[in-house]
């Protein structure tokens, strides 16, 4: 179940990143992380800490609740 949550969140991040027309590399540069980190988050491999969710929410200009809407 826990891994499913990470996959859902990662899928939501990918969805909103694509809506904002950002590549993984562009998003990684804006967040000061590697492209592989973004890839691993989007694929549900890495658990996403709260501070990263907040950073993603601000970067993509979406409410945090929209990233978590399918999880909560």
TrEMBL record:
<feature type="domain" description="HTH cro/C1-type">
    <location>
        <begin position="13"/>
        <end position="67"/>
    </location>
</feature>
<dbReference type="InterPro" id="IPR010982">
    <property type="entry name" value="Lambda_DNA-bd_dom_sf"/>
</dbReference>
<dbReference type="GO" id="GO:0003677">
    <property type="term" value="F:DNA binding"/>
</dbReference>
<dbReference type="InterPro" id="IPR001387">
    <property type="entry name" value="Cro/C1-type_HTH"/>
</dbReference>
<dbReference type="Pfam" id="PF01381">
    <property type="entry name" value="HTH_3"/>
</dbReference>
<protein>
    <submittedName>
        <fullName>XRE family transcriptional regulator</fullName>
    </submittedName>
</protein>
């Amino acid at each position: 179940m826990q891994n499913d949550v990470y996959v859902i969140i990662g899928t939501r991040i990918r969805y909103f990143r694509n809506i904002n027309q950002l590549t993984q590399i562009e998003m990684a540069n804006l967040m000061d992380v590697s492209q592989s980190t973004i890839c691993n988050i989007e694929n549900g491999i890495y658990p996403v800490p709260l501070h990263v969710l907040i950073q993603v929410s601000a970067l993509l200009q979406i409410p945090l609740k929209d990233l978590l809407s399918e999880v909560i």
